[in-house]
Design goal:
about 625 residues; 6-stranded mixed sheet; 5-stranded mixed sheet; 20 helices; 13 strands; about 60% helix; disordered C terminus; ABC_transporter-like_CS; ABC1_TM_dom; ATP binding
Length: about 625
Amino acid sequence: MVSPGPGVLLRATLRTRRREFVRLTGWSLVEAVPALLSGWLVARAVDDGFLAGRSAAGFGWLGLLACAVLVGAWGTRQVTLQLAGVVEPFRDDLVTLATTGTLHRSARVGQGVDTAGVARLTEQVEIARESYGAVVMFVQSFTVTTVSVLLGLAALDPALLLFVAPPLMAGLVLFLLALRAMAARQRAVVLADEAIAEQVSTVAGGLRDVAACGAEEAVRRRVGARVDEAAGAARALARLTALRTAALGVGGWLPIVLILAGAPWMVRSGVTAGAILGALTYVSQSLQPALRGFVQGLGGSGLWLLVTLGRILETAGPWAPGASEVPRAARVTGTSAVTSARVAAPSRAVEGQAAGRADGTPSATGPGKPEAAAPPRAPTPPDPPRATHPRDGRVDLRDVTFGYAPSAEPVVQGLDLSLVSGTHLAVVGPSGAGKSTLAAIVAGVLEPQAGQVRLGGVPVRSLDTGRLTRSRVLIPQEAYVFVGTLRENLAYLHPTATQPALDAAVHAIGAAPLVARLGGYDAPVDPALLSAGERQLIALVRALLPPAPLVLLDEATCHLDPGAEAVAERAFASRPSTLIVCAHRISSALRADLVLVMDGPRCTLGTHDRLRADCALYRDLIGHWDQVGAEIRR
């Protein structure tokens, strides 16, 4: 699948915003009133006024010209206002394309971060926006003005067209022939700018290593070569501007020379002096400025528009051969060497099974500690051709690997995890161990580079946004509360919730005092006036309402006191849904069926009692939690 070209995007813009362009064209016709009438009114003022000895009539005709100029100025104002309705939506489309392309190119497996995407998102999108507005203005103005001038010349005397139309057409042909070569030079300039941005970003990220290795001179030469390439591309483009100047001279200045040179012949043929002066007015005051704007605008802004659009569209297309759709979340790259842990937990039963232990004792291995007599890993079943709704809350991770960057230490690798529907799992570990990352992977927010995540027997990556939203709820540490009524905030994930269901969820979470303090469900909510704990209570009620088979609480109770946290977790545990809690207190681990301890290259699974006996890190965490609790009590 190939990304559409700039022409396709521009034509699509014309189709989707046809009404805005029609309004813009209408006001452009008003703006062109002086161009249509100026030469004719000057001719009347000369022939029927001043040369006829009627100065008052001559000034009257010129007064009408002044009125026409005022009408054109009013039209210009309206054109400028209408232009925003065309340009700003176009800019929004480009921001979406540039952002999507940069994220997916950066997250493509086996490729580095797309640092040049910063130039596309900032410099190139703004260039395309400004260029698009200029091109629309210049092209529309030139078209309307040229038609008006030719109609005016024909009204004065058809013979005048012989002196204006041929050189105008010759100038346009010369300019359009040079445009392709100028576009190639302009593209070279854009690519050179991107190369500089990428090189500088790479150097800035490794300045300490450059200094430590004494590689300043080598880096200086490399960056200097990029700068020289950009300067050479700019000089090559500048040389082609001579053709643009020549086209302007042929189309804009040659008609004036021909009219002056042919004036004696035209006078002998019956063309009046006023008509000749009117023709010069048409060319010098209307046609020539419009042609100058067209040539300079299309030769400058138009080239930038085509080239920058081409670059943005190139990066917004598919990122892998055969890809048929844009992934739901950014694909994040990287490989890692983390231990694997296979867990099979029955509903609400404290049972675990880890790869490598025949007695079912949970275990995990890391680099240098292979499992003894580990059973062979079952092959990953292929994705179904069409996504179905998850049957229940069963969670299966098979050989899942994830890292945030190719050069970064991986967060998860080779992780096998199986939770039957209804299991309550607590995920613990030091800060930065990957707890939030694991929650995001299970929820389908992050997509692993290798392995497969299934929810209710259905691959998470095959679920569209609607099915995924209905199948799981993820509540992060920073609860999201928006300006609106309390009811709107609580029922955000389940708008059809009944009043009894809303009351039950509020009481189950322990948020009834908060609802009463705020003034009931229809009271307005200002997030800035709520504490972090109150915002978490609202988010917890919101998560409890929908009947999702999987709930993930990523430290979603960290701002609640232990008693309120226990109430909230028991509310979720009483449901048949699978519950995964990224815990920050020992009490959360005590309430769980199983505990998964994450520690970089090691993952260990088991019950609280077994981990306390067998896992040194878990004992350390318990000691840390006990110490923090004692300090808080003091």
